[in-house]
Design a protein that fits this description.
It is built from 11 helices and no strands. By secondary structure, it is mainly α.
Length: 214
């Protein structure tokens, strides 16, 4: 067996173990509540040791968010891979609404109810959400061709992420998201104009359309 095959096999085994732990944890959390379940009980149901659980999930709260890496990738892709002519704010608005709709689905509803009943999970989820901040800043920075992020980009991303948190707690998420980005975009659009090339400088007429994508 080649080194590549051995590495691939190890990664598959790690992924399978992680999936078993997440499944065991979520089953127990939904049966008895987050606070009533110990890590040892989760390990026993998954047929692994508590040490193995902590190897994959450093905090008990992380066990309730086994798909966090997938959510991270989707969020960054919503900005980095958005269709031409779509602004960053429009892409984030659409992504936020899709995520909130998914949380309300029959599959996700029990997990959402568990979170709402467990303050520790709500707090952890909010802290975890802002861990996406650096990745979004980097995606925007690359698009603008900047070697370092500006204060404006940092503030835009921080406030844009806050809009999603507010929307998940709102009776009308769509209205909350629209209001948040409407206020945020007033300053953001002025900032974007710095990166718009005037048509008279000989540059390709990339300009208004490219700037609006941002």
């Amino acid at each position: 067996m080649s080194e590549g095959q051995r590495t691939g096999r190890r990664e598959r085994k790690k992924a399978a173990t992680r999936a078993l732990i997440v499944q065991a944890a979520q089953e127990l959390f939904l049966e008895r509540g987050f606070d009533a379940v110990s890590v040892r009980e989760i390990a026993d149901r998954a047929d692994v040791s508590p040490t193995t659980v902590f190897t994959h999930f450093p905090h008990k709260e992380a066990l309730a968010f086994g798909d966090e890496d997938v959510r991270h990738d989707r969020l960054v892709a919503a900005v980095a891979d958005r269709p031409p002519g779509t602004s960053i704010s429009a892409a984030l608005k659409a992504h936020y609404l899709a995520e909130i709709t998914a949380l309300g689905s029959e599959l996700e509803r029990p997990v959402l109810a568990l979170m709402e009943q467990t303050p520790a999970l709500v707090e952890y989820a909010e802290r975890m959400w802002f861990r996406h901040e650096d990745a979004l800043i980097e995606a925007i920075m690359r698009e603008f061709g900047l070697p370092e992020p500006s204060d404006e980009i940092r503030f835009y991303v921080r406030f844009a992420l806050q809009i999603q948190l507010s929307a998940t707690r709102a009776a009308n998420p769509e209205s909350t998201i629209d209001a948040g980005f409407r206020l945020l975009d007033e300053g953001w659009l002025r900032y974007q104009r710095r990166f718009q090339q005037p048509a008279s400088d000989g540059a390709c007429p990339t300009d208004a359309s490219a700037a609006m994508r941002r």
